[in-house]
Design brief:
The chain is an alpha+beta fold. The chain has 6 helices and 10 strands; from the N terminus they run ααββαβαβαβββαβββ. A 5-stranded mixed beta sheet has the order 1-2-4-3-5, sandwiched between helices. α4 links the parallel β3 and β4. The longest helix is centred in the N-terminal third of the chain and has 22 residues. The protein is elongated and about 80 Å long. The N and C termini lie far apart (51 Å). The model has no long low-confidence stretch (mean pLDDT 94).
Length: 272
């Protein structure tokens, strides 16, 4: 005979269409860091409908933290397990042509946070109907894309239990990872994925006509030399066994094809 499916399988199957619909809704209405007001309202609406205790208006106004107590008094004496999803989008114009594509020009859920948020709401929907040997805190974090929303939540007492529930002993931060086979979960003890630092450099020169470069001081040439040299910080300044990535992603300078500008700027990220 076929093995009996686990008790959560039916709950997941029932929740899945709701999760998909939520994800499509979120994807169509992306909001960038600390502007996730519609997203935050959607999260609180779903948690309220499920009867799950939560606190909103966190980390600048759009963060939400919910809590599911353990099923027993003994379980509630234990610290909580935290499950975290980020909720912000990126300032990118969507060109996918999907039926649920972004309806906000210049904004897109290009890093999967719409999926993270929908999945965590699905987890809440399933966990509330399952026995829980210890408490679970659900964290909907704003401003993951460079805005420091996680740090603001921690400073407001998230990990210590000052917001809701007991202190959090372990935290799992969800992130979609296309390189893993479907149905596979990857995790490890300790930090996972990279920390990011940003570098912005402005080169100030002397503008001139392009026909008379000797009358000026070309900031674009100086910036180009620096961008190339930056790569040697990784290739020659860091051990080959260490994981470091330097990427220059924004370059700005000049406004006419025949004029050397007075200044030029680039912005880069360092991940390690």
């Amino acid at each position: 005979p076929s093995p009996k499916p686990p008790p959560h399988a039916a709950l997941i199957a029932r929740a899945l269409p709701v999760v998909v619909a939520l994800r499509h809704d979120l994807h169509a209405h992306p909001e960038i860091a600390y502007q996730e007001h519609r997203t935050s309202k959607l999260i609180t609406r779903e948690l309220t409908a499920l009867g799950i205790a939560h606190v909103s208006g966190l980390a600048g106004g759009t963060g939400v933290v919910a809590h599911l107590p353990a099923s027993t008094d003994a379980g509630n004496a234990l610290p909580a397990v935290g499950l975290r999803a980020d909720i912000d989008a990126l300032p990118i114009a969507e060109q996918t042509g999907l039926p649920y594509a972004s309806t906000t020009p210049g904004r897109m859920h290009a890093c999967g946070h719409d999926g993270h948020t929908a999945i965590l709401l699905g987890v809440a929907r399933v966990l509330k109907d399952l026995p829980r040997p210890r408490p679970v805190t659900l964290v909907f974090q704003p401003a993951e894309e460079g805005g420091g929303g996680g740090e603001r939540l921690c400073n407001e007492g998230l990990l210590d239990g000052a917001i809701i529930g007991p202190r959090i002993e372990k935290m799992f931060g969800l992130h979609g990872w296309p390189d893993l086979p479907v149905g596979t979960i990857g995790t490890r003890a300790g930090p996972l994925l990279a920390g990011t630092d940003e570098l912005r450099a402005t080169f100030v020169g002397v503008g001139s006509l392009a026909a008379y470069p000797h009358h000026g001081r070309d900031p674009i040439l100086a910036m180009s030399q620096c961008i190339v040299a930056l790569q040697t910080l990784v290739s020659r300044g860091v051990s080959p066994t260490d994981s470091v990535v330097r990427s220059v992603c924004i370059v700005k300078g000049g406004s006419a094809s025949n004029v050397i500008p007075d200044s030029a700027t680039f912005t880069a990220t360092l991940r390690c």
